[in-house]
Design goal:
Elements lengths: L2 H11 L26 E2 L3 E3 L7 H9 L2 E7 L2 E6 L10 E8 L7 E6 L4 E8 L7 E8 L1 H8 L3 H22 L3 E4 L4 H8 L14 E9 L11 E4 L2 E2 L11 H9 L22 H7 L15 H9 L7 H4 L8 E7 L8 E4 L6 H8 L19 E5 L3 H7 L11 E8 H5 L5 H22 L3 E5 L4 H8 L6 E10 L8 E3 L12
Antiparallel strand pairs: 1-12, 2-7, 3-4, 3-19, 5-6, 5-8, 6-7, 7-11, 8-10, 9-10, 13-14, 13-16, 14-15, 16-18, 17-18
Helix pairs in contact: 1-6, 2-4, 3-4, 4-13
């Protein structure tokens, strides 16, 4: 098979169905789950300051760092600013610093548990202008341990969430972020991911994306040369250790092999948005919703959806220089002044016509009452959609007890026509949408959570979709959370020595 056929075969094989779930482990021993923190043994450790309002330390803390600890009895686990499927966190972060005050030129791995950098490589002497790059990679095994073959989907979603978390953190600090058009091989070589000897007996990391962090001035970027490497990756464990070979196959098939054209950012100073910091720190994934108190004001609902439109929201959408290909279809349950039922939000100018022609011809496609003219929201069907939403989302109550839930329809065929790597991009965009919804929910005084488990083709059938022109990639739900008071919340870095506490 060619790479696109490999992607299609993987996507079809890993669909959940009403009569069978995608292949996964037969049982889970939570005492044997993979270590959520990667370390590089033998690497020099650079401790970072906490609670700073600027600089690399703050950027990492607010994007990939810890946000809290939860404790229930003897069990204790960390939460992070970037959400993750099952709180398993496959995404790893790297800093590449050249000419940055207070940090020697080098490639560093970010260790969120210690809020520290581990020196992985020294850069060759260079006359190149200063630059700060941030690389992301993924350890698929962390997700595959729980989710089996479907894990590749979740790994890519988490990469998209991390991209959104980084963009929001940068905006809070007055920084700009660019997604660089480099190959996976470029990223692997730069981060040392292709150094097999450094990962002996340890789980592999696969390159995701490379970002440039700057203050708004337009300039070129360069890929530096590394002269010396340090450290060996720690094995993460996780028994039993099943080998889901199909994940390796789709990872290889979707590798980015071509360099693209660099997007030129607008020049000028970007004002910091410190109002984002409390939202970033308080963001949590809702575990349950109060169906009795989840009624949402209509204007709040419209405001949340408006934040998903790239044209009117520079943050975080200025980082997304790839085509817009995802469009939410919403199950509205409890929004004041709106009839319950099915709605659609086409996110670019031509999507409405394409969706209309692909979906059930009996849908209404009417603008709802009070909807802002610039918000392309359409009422498709009036109905009590709670039972359908619950069933479609693997029988999970969170899809029906909220104010609304949604599925994200991707322009699947059109995307894959441009190459297999677009499969990853579709999930990155879905994760980025999810991150917007998370923070918009927090700003509105409610809470959201992603839903990775849903019955793919049953969703398509409800919408009248007959082929793979559109595919639902990710579900999400927003409402008034039901708080589990049995859980104790602890500060994010309370485990560090007192002298490092803010």
């Amino acid at each position: 098979m060619d790479t696109t056929q490999t992607v299609r075969a993987y996507h079809e094989r890993t669909k959940h169905r009403l009569d069978a779930y995608a292949k996964g482990p037969e049982f889970l021993d939570w005492d044997q789950q993979p270590n959520p923190f990667r370390r590089f043994v033998g690497a020099e450790v650079v401790e970072l300051p906490l609670e700073e309002n600027e600089g690399i330390a703050a950027l990492l803390q607010l994007s990939l760092g810890l946000s809290a600890w939860k404790q229930y009895g003897p069990d204790r686990w960390a939460l992070r600013c970037n959400p993750s499927s099952g709180n398993l966190h496959p995404t790893e972060g790297y800093v590449i610093a050249n000419g940055i005050d207070g940090l020697s030129d080098g490639v560093y791995h970010y260790a969120p548990h210690e809020h520290a950098l581990e020196l992985r490589g020294k850069l060759a002497d260079s006359d190149s202008p200063p630059q700060l790059l941030l690389g992301l990679s993924s350890i698929a095994w962390r997700e595959a341990w729980k989710y089996g073959e479907r894990a590749f989907r979740y790994v890519q979603l988490d990469a998209g969430h991390a991209l959104g978390a980084i963009r929001y953190a940068a905006a809070a600090l007055g920084l700009q972020v660019e997604l660089l058009p480099v190959t996976d091989a470029d990223i692997a070589a730069l981060l040392g991911l292709d150094r097999a000897d450094d990962f002996t007996d340890a789980e592999a990391e696969h390159p995701d994306m490379l970002l440039r962090i700057h203050t708004g001035a337009a300039s070129t970027f360069h890929l530096p040369t590394i002269t010396q490497w340090y450290g060996k990756a720690n094995p993460l464990g996780g028994l039993p250790k099943h080998n889901w070979s199909i994940i390796d196959e789709v990872t290889t098939a979707t590798a980015s092999l071509r360099r693209g054209v660099l997007h030129t950012p607008s020049s000028g100073v970007h004002e910091s948005q410190p109002n984002l910091i409390p939202l970033i720190r308080q963001r949590r994934s809702a575990q349950a919703f109060s169906g009795k108190t989840s009624t949402m004001p209509r204007d709040t609902f419209y405001a949340i959806l408006s934040a998903l439109l790239p044209a009117s929201n520079p943050v975080p959408w200025d980082v997304w220089t790839l085509p817009i290909r995802l469009h939410p279809v919403l199950f509205v349950h409890r929004v004041e002044g709106l009839p319950a039922g099915l709605y659609a939000l086409p996110r670019h100018a031509t999507a409405e016509a394409t969706l209309r022609s692909a979906m059930n011809p009996d849908f209404l496609w009417q603008k709802p009452e009070g909807c802002p003219a610039e918000l392309p929201l359409f009422h498709l069907l009036e109905a009590d959609a709670r039972k359908a939403a619950r069933t479609l989302s693997c029988h999970q109550d969170i899809a029906s007890t909220s104010s609304f839930s949604l599925g994200m329809l991707a322009e699947f065929d059109a995307g894959l026509a441009e190459g297999a790597p677009v499969y990853r991009h579709l999930y990155w965009e879905a994760g980025l949408i999810g991150q917007v919804l998370y923070l918009q929910a927090e700003a509105a005084g409610v809470r959201g959570t992603g839903i990775g488990c849903f019955f793919d083709d049953s969703v398509h059938e409800v919408l009248g979709l007959q082929d793979t022109q559109f595919q639902s990639l990710y579900h999400f739900t927003v409402g008034n959370p039901a708080i589990d008071t049995r859980l104790e919340m602890l500060p994010p870095y309370s485990h560090l020595p007192k002298e490092r506490q803010p």
